[in-house]
Write a structure and sequence with these properties.
about 200 residues, alpha/beta, Rossmann fold, 7 helices, 7 strands, about 15% strand, globular
Length: about 200
């Protein structure tokens, strides 16, 4: 079983055009607090980022935001009751979030969320970490992306074991159950350190 304490959540700085997205962001924040998980997130106080962070804080989570300096005004850096780490770049933001977290969850969002999800999956594939990655698939938001991943497997651009790295549910308890049982795929031989 994985030991999960801090969970990085990737999600939109917008709320989307359906109230369900904010409702489910708050639900996940409450779940984190009620189950003694800490939240690491993008540091903004707007959109789904703000919704999950504020719900997690109110529910007892320790919350750490990671925000690039140039986004501080645009995303309204959060945290009256949490910790805000300012970094120099988007890449440093992802590195810091990975370092501070025991697992990852992606929620609905735009290109930034997709970038974060793709990079953290790639890092698993390359053996840079072995942490579980969950997809909080609210309202079928990620169904088309999951179909694309299946197409990658079908066409030989993704190994089936790497497709299984992504854990999927629309319910927090089911998602965490999968994350706690997760085993990372083996690191490809060509990536292992030279044993000679």
């Amino acid at each position: 079983m994985n030991k999960l304490k801090s969970i990085a959540v990737f999600c939109g700085s917008s709320t989307g055009n359906h109230p369900l997205y904010v409702e489910k962001a708050k639900e996940l924040g409450i779940y984190l607090g009620q189950n003694d998980y800490d939240l690491v997130y993008g540091g903004g106080n707007i959109g789904l980022m703000g919704a999950i962070a504020n719900a997690a804080i109110e529910s007892g989570s320790e919350v750490t935001g990671v925000l690039p300096h140039f986004l501080r005004k645009r995303e309204v850096g959060n945290l009256a009751n949490g910790k805000l780490i300012l970094v120099d770049s988007m890449h440093e933001r992802k590195q810091t979030m990975e370092r501070l977290s025991d697992g990852f969850i992606a929620m609905p969002g735009g290109l930034g969320t997709l970038d974060e999800l793709a990079e953290i999956l790639t890092w698993t594939q390359l053996g840079l970490h072995q942490k579980p990655i969950g997809l909080y698939n609210i309202n079928g938001y990620f169904d088309t992306l999951l179909s694309m991943f299946d197409k990658m497997v079908e066409n030989g651009f993704m190994k089936p074991e790497n497709r299984k790295m992504l854990l999927v549910s629309s319910k927090p308890d089911e998602l965490f159950d999968q994350m706690l049982k997760y085993t990372a795929p083996p690191v490809p031989k060509w990536l292992k350190p030279d044993q000679s």
